[in-house]
Give the backbone structure.
Amino acid sequence: MAMNRARAASTGAVGQGERPRLSIKKDMGSRDFSSDSGNERERGSDSRLSGMDIKRQPRGNKKRNIYIGIGAAAVLVSVYLFSQLEPAAPTVDRNVIVLGTVERGEMVREVRGSGTLVPERVQFVAAVTAGRVESVHFEPGQEVSATDVLVVLSNPDVELQVLEAEQQWTAARATLVSLRQTLGTGVLSQEASVADARARSLQARREAEAFDEMVDNEWVSENENRNAQDNADALEELLRTEQARLDLLNSTIDERLLVQREQVARLADIHRYYKERAANMRVVAGADGVLQDFDLEVGQWVQAGTTLARVAQTERLKAELRIPQTQARDVQVGQAAFVDTRRDTIPGRVRRVDPNVQGGSVLVEVTLEGDLPAGARPDLNVEGMIELERLSDVLHVGRPTYGQSHSTVGLFRVVDDGRAAERVPVQLGRSSVNQIEVVEGLQEGDVIILSDMSRYDDMDRVRIR
């Protein structure tokens, strides 16, 4: 009865809104419960309550809050420390990088370029006159002599011009002969006139003298005497005129003949020119050598001045190299050069540097010295190297991929016995094909990475594995 009353009292208290009391469970090791779950457990386990309920004070949360605060502080400290740490250095494979060692000693500055072998002397064969190809006697690549006929052309107009020029020349020569005859006849006629005038003048003078003697004896009148004197004076003046005409004719005859002779000579040159044009329709090589660029077919029409072929004189060849314009500024005439034909290396000297830039490169002509190898021939692709200067006792290293002359760049220097590399600023100087001068930033014996490291521009250190 007593237990029923206690259970009823407890149930009534809960129903009236009073604070529920904690009950003691059989499993005393479990301490994780709340008031709501306690209420539910109380209502579901009335049969497991002890004989009387014990009122207990709720446990405080002070210790738990201390633990939470300590944990939060530890997390904040860890986050701050991790934020202050530098990112881990990336790793590069030793097998994919190229290393170079800084050395001190002689450094040869060189520039390199590609090109072809070309003949020093080339004979261009051109068509003097327009014509149609009648026959072709050689093919490209064959050796020819200077007198060999390469091709025969035909043109009726040229043959007609030869005939017309010959006709004009013949007519001019006939004119010269006629002129010489005419002038000679004129001279003879004038000489006869002079002789006649002289005879008449002498006769008149004698008559005037006779009349002058007879006038004193009064055999003739004074009027007759004066008429005889006037006639003698007139005939003397006629003689002087005829003589002057003869002198003028003699003085101009040579000039008139000279003009006609010059006309004949000009027409002879014209005839010779047209005749040579007709003869040049049999096109000859003009030089000994190898026939090149010769591609004609029978029946083809060619214009005057068209280049028909080239005759390369292969006993003397030169190399034409293309040097990048950034490296060609130091190339000078007379510098030593070496030309690689893929089978032999031929020494030479810089002969000419083209002042113009084409396609980002400069044309440099190199004269080859010594005997040419058996495989050397025109249009052969070659590689050339020009020696600019020799620098003694300088620090130098293999040229980095991204290192330019007279600049300051960041290079990775190998440290920690080859296990890592750190970035150092390096001042570079004069450069060559495969080497570059070190002005400042490295010492003799330092090992640097020469390959492209641009992907690590934001890193100051890398690991090498």
Observations:
- The longest strand covers residues 381-398.
- The chain has a mean pLDDT of 81.
- Helices lie at 2-15, 35-44, 62-84, 156-216, 222-279.
- Residues 156-279 form one domain.
